[in-house]
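Lab meeting, action items carried over

1. Structure of the two-component assembly. Owner: GW. Status: complete.
Input record:
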Amino acid sequence: GQQVMQIPQYQHVQEGEDFTTYCNSSTTLSNIQWYKQRPGGHPVFLIQLVKSGEVKKQKRLTFQFGEAKKNSSLHITATQTTDVGTYFCFFPNQAGTALIFGKGTTLSVSS
Amino acid sequence: KAGVTQTPRYLIKTRGQQVTLSCSPISGHRSVSWYQQTPGQGLQFLFEYFSETQRNKGNFPGRFSGRQFSNSRSEMNVSTLELGDSALYLCASSPGHGQAEYNEQFFGPGTRLTVL
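Predicted assembly:
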């Protein structure tokens, strides 16, 4: 079946440092979505990537979809304490039989 | 628009009991998905309903079941509860049209289930 890996599991940074989380799939994806979950909250949609090699930016956040559509990354420039939370990648199973979230990367930021 | 609502927010049950959780999607959304979130396993997909039909299913035992009503509200039932069923149960709604599975999902606040 489809294998998903999201790394790292945890990341601690000093405020102002950059942060990147990676999501890798064993199979080609039709699209990928990214979500953020604040501590004690629920996942909130950030963005969707569909095209091979696509890059999208939201202020300090940069999302990238690999050329082979098997991997994706989320990069945060100059982290702030408001960036704290867990970032998940999400995509449907190739066979359409399950909807899969990566295990998530939990980001902590110290000021 | 009102967001996704889930009831109850907290629930305590004992092993062997059954439980029903409810989810009301955003008005106009026809797809409702359910997820189990635990610290060890992350977000695991249970099932998705679209227009009262189960469209996708995850790898959970038959003790976990769901249904969707004509107004798109959905319920999830867990029978014969086990200690390992303690988790945050999240539902998410999406419009469900077009490339349905790929729509943005809007999550509810979740139901925290504790099994003693």
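2. GW to write a short summary for the group page. Key points so far: The radius of gyration of chain A is 14 Å. Chain A has a mean pLDDT of 92.
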